[in-house]
Task: structure prediction
Amino acid sequence: MIEAFAAIAARPSTSLPFPSRPVTRYAHITGWGDGLPPAVLTNQDLSTFLETSDEWIVQRTGMKERRISHVSAIEMATLASRRALACADLDPAELELIVYGSCSPDEQVPNSASGVQIALKATRAAAMDVNTACTSFLYGLASATAMIQSGMVQNALVIGVEYISPFMDWSNRNVAVLFGDGAAAVVLQASDEPGGVIGTVLGCDAEARQTLRVRGMGCSYVQGDLHYGDTLWDFDGQAIFKRAVHGMSEACARVMREAGVTADDIDLVVPHQANLRIIESVAKYAGVPMERVMLTVQRYGNMSAATVPVALSDALAEGRVKPGSLLLMPGFGGGLTYGALLVRWGQRITPLRQSDAALPPVSQTALEMVNAIRARQDPHGRSLDALMSTRFIEAVAG
Ligand code: ACO
Result:
């Protein structure tokens, strides 16, 4: 395991900016906002239909509650986007790029970024989806930064959003307790002022891609006798845990080294929130004490692509980001993709404007919504053969 990561560390850097190309334009985060659904699913709620307990979940994951959405992913993303644009006081008509980071799109075709574009009337904006699972926001932020630095666009809206509850395998206590729904977005703008996203390390430990698979999503299953929405979460939790810690720790070390900063310079770590114990291990390897780590895992669980931008938005609301703060954002996800970004915050830590956008009211409790999804699922009656029969590339390559 350690050797595998030493090999990754020795590879040529994929960091941005490239050392050979001096940066003359910078990408600053000038707007932020969340789009969280209000319905809360507690550990106690989960224990009404799973053999689990609040004590087990808190002890092994740090999670106490998570959100369940009554609206689509695009609606959550649009709310977050309206708040982020108001925060930056940027007219949607001036937006040049929308990056929609997610692995749970409302539809495959058309893409989801186009759904946000039309809702915002951001008619000038290019619109693309990025799916690297839980790292989709970080990969999206890195891509948008590169496009701003190259001069291709002047600004970008980068979204992290996930609507996991409809395709969660609610019969599997190993995974059903871990995830929640949510969204958040940031606005990036070009500037000559040094700062913003100043370091980017991205990578993929594909050797372990089979350790984290959601069977039932994707074209490989089309031929099978499958009940759509019935999934089988093929996870090796402990293997993912170890790879996640090594991948994120390595990415943190590399991004700090390449930017010429040390752990003492980091004001706040804003990590992916998959498990409190993973975050504690990464902070320990990075050399940053837990007092300088933003934690939201207890209130939202793992919202995949949405965790980092929601944690950033909460950190700003709680006054934990100061003018000029240096932020370290590590993440990992299916693939196994991983990465770490460094952000030198600007001078402004409050919104320029507030948006009055809101989600429609919710009429059911989170538990009622989950029970309605469970009633439609088929775990895993006639779907099991179809879920298990598909062969994947690593079996062929292996
Ligand atoms: N409630 C009660 N008991 C449970 C539960 C539950 N929800 N889930 C598992 N258990 C049981 C197991 O069956 C096992 O029982 P046994 O000893 O009788 O066999 C026991 O608890 C211990 O299980 P472990 O798997 O050893 O528990 P561990 O401490 O490794 O924690 C966990 C499991 C939380 C999944 C951890 O491994 C983890 O966080 N892994 C990575 C998380 C992950 O994969 N996140 C998704 C990342 S992907 C992304 O972010 C896209």
User: Anything to note?
Assistant: Confidence is low (pLDDT under 50) at residues 1-5, 7-21. The pocket of acetyl coenzyme *A is lined by residues 52, 56-57, 60-61, 133-134, 173-174, 177-178, 212, 235, 237-238, 240-241, 274-275, 302, 304, 333-334 (CB under 6 Å).
